[in-house]
Structures are given as C-alpha cells and as structure tokens.
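ARCHIVE CARD
Drawer: 12
Card no.: 0347
Subject: one protein chain, sequence and derived structure
Cross-reference: see card 0346
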Amino acid sequence: MLRNLEAKLGGLVEGAFGRAFRTSVQPVELAHKLAKEMEDNQMASVSRVYVPNHYREAGPSPSSGDFGHTMVYSPSRDARKVEPVDDRRQALLVGGGRRNVLSGNRVVIGRSREADIVLQDPNVSRRHAELRREDGAWQVVDLGSTNGIKVNGRRVDHQPLRPGDQVTIGVTDLTFELD
C-alpha cells in the first residue's frame, strides 16, 4: 500500500515538474528509473533474485547489434559487453549429504533461513560465513561469527579456496569442489 502511494506521489511530482520545466531526459534519470523498475519488479528464488532485463520506451529502441547481449552500465564510460568467462566449471560445496551449487558472486552460509546455504548446526551463526567469487576464484570469509571458520583444520578469517579444501563451519565439514 505504501509503495503504491509512493509511486502515485512520485508520478504527480515528476509530472508537474516535467510540464513546468521542459528539459531533455538525462542519463542519470534513466539509470534511476531503471533501478527503480528492477527493484519494483524483482522476483526472488531460493538462491537468486531475478530482475527484468528488457525495457522498452515509447520512442527509442536498442540497436540490433546489442540485443541479447548483457551490457554493463558505467557512469564514466559507454556501456560495454560482458565477456563470457572461459572457465565453465561449476563451484560446489559438498557436505552433509548435499551438493550445494555456488551461483552468483556471493553465497552466505548460516543457520538463518535467509542464508543461501542453510546449516542445521547450533554452533553456526545466523550469518556465519560468505563465499565470494572475485576474478574467477572463490574465497571463504568469516562474517564475524562466534565460532569462526577453519580451512583444512586451520582457523582463518578469510582464505582463497582450491578444489578439495575442507571448510569447517561450526561442527559441519564441507568440501569445496569444481565440477
């Protein structure tokens, strides 16, 4: 209800100022509107949040060369295509009879139902650790948990991961693999 009220008030204010000050649309305004559309129309799944990736304005249309390609918005440079990653191996965290596929660039591990990988271990904090993918490599990072994390039996705050590394969170042992 509040979101609808906000949208209506925003439309009234934008419409009034748009009629009073006839100016051209600035790129930053488009970026804000696209971000708002993504936020308003997002859909959450178990491990990801999906947002629309096609937008149409009444007049302009994208060039046929850009259609279907992922583009990156950059305020200082023109949009550029995202090059596909050569390493197509899937990262996995295996343990407790489960194989957890690591998707995206950040995966939260914890006891909370809101974590990407939920561990039913009373020694695990609600948001215990995070797996981060940076420059194609994965690392595990402690999120200030009470009991910490271990990689291959050694307590660490953060540690790059290699296939076969054993990550201990609470009393749960998980193995990092590339498939």
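Annotation on reverse: The longest strand covers residues 172-178. The chain is about 20% helix and 30% strand.
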